[in-house]
Amino acid sequence: MEFLPLIIFFIVANVIGIALLTISKILGIKKTTIRKNDIYESGVNPVGSATRQYDVKYYLTAILFLLFDVEIVFLLPWAMAYGESNNKGFMIGGFVFFMVILLFGYFFVINSKALKWDE
Amino acid sequence: MLETIIEILIKTAVIIGLPLGSLPIIIHVERRGAGFIQRRLGPNRVGPFGFFQPLADVAKFMFKEEVHPSHVKPFFYTAAPLIALVVAILPLACIPVFAPINFDGRQIFPEVFHSEMGIFFAFAMASLGSYGILLAGWASNNKFSMLGALRACAQMVSYELSLSTAVVAMIFLFGTNDIHQMVEWQSGYWFGFLPKWGVFLQPVAATLFLIGIFAESNRTPFDLPEGESELVAGYHLEYSSMKFALFFMAEYIHMMALSALFIILFFGGYNILPGMELLVNPFPELLPIMQLMSLFLKVAFMIWFFVWVRWTLPRFRYDQLMDLGWKRLLPLGLVNLIATVLFVYFRN
After folding, report:
1. Smallest CA–CA separation between B66 and chain A, in Å?
2. B222-256 pLDDT, tens digit each
3. Nearest CA of chain A to the CA of B299: how many Å?
4. Which of A22, B191, B269, B281 is 20 to 30 A from residue B290's alpha carbon, by CA?
5. With helix as H, strand as E and coil as C, how does B66-104 read?
6. Rounded to whole angstroms, how far apart are CA atoms B57 and A96?
7. Which residue of B has its CA nearest to A32?
8. Do B158 and A50 touch (CB under 8 A)?
9. In terms of CA atoms, which chain B residue is nearest residue A84?
């Protein structure tokens, strides 16, 4: 019941999107040719396939993002709980300890050249 | 029950209708602004000052042929623009446009989904934007699309980190995660003239957040995913007619939602602009309208700022972009967070 507004909002957003897609499907002209349905590579004949190997750096970036995003996820409840806690010193100590470990990890990542893009 | 549903539907219509309705105006401002900055005219033929040009464009999008190429993965190819649009609209559900008002003995909240966790919901939905883009690039089965999508995702997740550190710093400073309390915190003045906005307390966090918005919505100078000289058009290369338009709309709505969140955190949200008290003090019942106007004006200024930057700064190189995100902004965000926490702790 609490999420009823959200569900209605979600449905309305979807209806708008689907309606827009349907409108152009109905109103648009339909004249397909083989050339038109081909891969678009600025007019020249397509070379190779799209399912080739890409740079591993994109993958590394995603993994490192996960790592640092989890850190943010841990910090958010901490920031919210800080105001209500009685032992502020303990909260701050935990935070500093966490950040020191995190910064060690950060410098390790930078040092291992996982994020070096210009080569 | 019926009244609740009617109330929700009215709010939904307003909250979705306002951004969608102002899209043609924004696109017109963007094109005319480009003309203004580059000393040319811009669109000026359709209607007065070319004002009906965006509407004509919408009509054109509807009547264009929807090319459905043979090499794509059909289901995801159609689903991707829809996902992009829906997740761009969803954060708007939690953005309040004026303070809660007492009407008929009960409190009415302006946002569709009122929750203490509203701001987290908004950020979570805003960061889902990379899914629509990645899916579009992958389903298009085209080298350029795939590269554009990979670039877009790597860039969006990289800048999300520094953006999130800014959010943590602000939530810590406000000591609350309720949007209404945050805005309440920022009401009033320092020294009698300076509005009590978060930006004056946390200029570093505000800068990080602002840069993050540009990267998240793939705007110049961070529009590498659409670098037309190298990637043709990036992830929406194989899309035509309304499917392309949905990506276009999603980008602008995403921009508006993130601007609204930026304003809530750093520019006093719906607090009335300085000078509006002259009108509100004699007529208190005007307050919600003035608050709506204030938020609207602030978002409008942000949109103009986006246009301004777009036609002023050139595009980054990709390695510069990643270096800026990971080696400058992320450490800056972490240091800023530590400094904020220690400042708050030692001040008491």
Report:
1. 6
2. 887 776 667 777 788 888 888 888 888 888 899 89
3. 21
4. B191
5. CCCCCCCCHHHHHHHHHHHHHHHHHHHHHCCCCCCEEEC
6. 54
7. B67
8. no
9. B175
Instruction: Give the B window 279-298 contacts with A, CB below 8 Å.
Output: none
Measure CA B261 to chain center. Answer: 7
Q: How far apart are CA A8 and CA A16, in angstroms?
A: 12
Cα separation, A110 vs A96, whole angstroms = 21
B208–A contact, CB cutoff 8 A:
no
d(CA B62, CA B56): 10
Q: Residue B118 carries which side chain, given as an amino acid letter?
A: G
Q: Where are the domains of chain A?
A: 4-111
The partner residue sitting opposite B64, judged by closest CB among A28, A75, A79, is A28
Residue B192 pLDDT > 80: no
Tokens of B273: 């602009």
CA-nearest residue to A61 within chain B is B154
Q: Quick check: A52 and B143 CB within 8 A? A: yes
Please report, as a single letter, which amino acid is at residue A61: T
CB contact under 8 A, B341 and A95: yes
Q: Which two tokens stand for residue A116?
A: 């070096």
**Which tokens in the block code for residue B62?**
């509807």
Q: Which chain B residues touch A75 with a CB distance below 8 Å? A: 168, 337
Average pLDDT of each block of 10 consecutive residues along chain A (119 residues)? 84 89 83 78 74 82 87 86 82 88 88 78
Largest Cα span, chain B: 66
Interface contact flag, B93 A9, Cβ < 8 Å: yes
Query: Which residue among A2, A13, A92 places its CB closest to the CB of B86?
Result: A13
ipTM of the complex: 0.86
Q: Which of B252, B251, B245 is nearest to B62 (CA)?
A: B245
Closest-CA residue to B82 (of B2, B136, B8, B21): B136
**Tokens of residue B28, six digits:** 């017109």
Question: What residue ranges do the domains of chain B occupy?
Answer: 56-347
State in words which class domain A4-111 has: mainly alpha
Q: What 3-state class would DSSP assign to B107?
A: strand
CA atoms within 13 A on the CB side of A34: 1
Sort out which chain B residues have CB atoms less than 8 A from A49's CB and list them: 143
DSSP state of A46: P
The two structure tokens encoding residue B60 = 């054109």
